Amino acid sequence: MNILVLNGPNLNMLGIREPGIYGSSTYADLLALIEETADRLGVHAECYQSNHEGDLVDKIQWAYGRIDGIVINPAAYTHTSVAILDALKAVSIPAVEVHISDVDSREAFRQISYAGLACEKTIKGHGFAGYREAMEYLVSAYGH
After folding, report:
1. Lower CB density within 10 Å: C or N end of the chain?
2. Above pLDDT 70, what percent of the chain?
């Protein structure tokens, strides 16, 4: 099984960016957790991070015919990007939305998720463990 893990803007700044919200673990720590989880589950995980909306759309489109499941943390684009929503809908690859923080308890503008409308499940507020949970869900539901 091939899983694409997509991370949106500013997630490359984990460990530096608002540690009170996102913790002190770095993006490299997150990548290590994803790799360890993929190895344990016996799947291949490809990770991609971009601060640019179009790059994320391009990567979702690239996944068509290559990837069996998507784990996506669109970050700020969660609340603004109809383009990412449309790309997820276009490829029809099972997707799980992940948020490190509990966006429900944050600012009012964070209460809508466009990307989430195309995802089977949303995991929020579980820190980095949310990525592990998303991968486990995809493998249990679609693994082959």
Report:
1. C
2. 88
